[in-house]
Every structure is written in C-alpha cells, then in structure tokens.
Write a structure and sequence with these properties.
The protein is mainly α. The chain has one domain (3-105). Helix content is 77%, strand content 0%. It holds the Pfam family Multi_Drug_Res. Keywords: Cell membrane, Membrane, Transmembrane, Transmembrane helix, Transport. It is a multi-pass membrane protein.
Length: 111
C-alpha cells in the first residue's frame, strides 16, 4: 500500500480516536479524554499533511471525512448505545459506496 494511503488511513483512525475521546471528555471536563482528543487530532492533521503531498485535497478530504463518519457511527452504536435508524444506515452505506468508487475507479486519487 502506498505511503500516502497508509498516512491517510492512520489519520482516519487518529481522528476516530479523537472524536471518541471528545464524546468521553464530556465537553472537556474530564482530563485524560481531553488530552487524548487533542493529541489524536494533532496526529491526524500531521498525517493528513503527509497524504496531501501526493493526493488532491478534495479526494483526501472525502475519504478522510467519509471513513471517519462511518467509524464514528459504528463506535457510537457499539460504545455509546446511540441507535441508527434505517435512513442513517442507508446513508452510511452510500458514503462507503462513494469511498469505494473513488478508490477503485477514479484516476483523481494522486497528482
């Protein structure tokens, strides 16, 4: 796997950890979740800057935000007991389909 994609996918994981910690921080009133949130977002943005060396910002951001939405929705469902209705599940499926289309068929992925 090319290094820019590794950086992008690790950035997605870091952002997902940061957003999960954001929920757990209870509006930054809990110290350790707040620290984890800040450090995770810092790592995510650093890794995004590496991915931007070879990927256009629009494609990179679509993949990053789309995968982040899907992962956070799954974590919200599993960890925080946040229910998803059918339209939410269909929308998440469409996001995943869009990411797959970009990665499998688009030639815009690198410059």
């Amino acid at each position: 796997m090319p290094s820019h994609l590794v950086a992008l996918f690790v950035a997605v994981l870091a952002e997902t950890i940061g957003t999960t910690a954001l929920q757990a921080s209870q509006q930054f009133t809990r110290f350790w979740p707040s620290v984890i949130c800040a450090l995770s977002y810092a790592l995510a943005f650093y890794l995004l800057s590496l991915a931007l060396k070879t990927m256009p910002v629009g494609i990179m951001y679509a993949i990053w935000s789309g995968l982040g939405i899907v992962l956070i929705a799954a974590i919200g469902y599993i960890v925080f007991n946040q229910k998803l209705d059918l339209p939410a599940v269909i929308g998440i499926g469409m996001i995943l389909a869009g990411i797959l289309i970009i990665n499998l068929f688009s030639t815009s992925g690198t410059h």
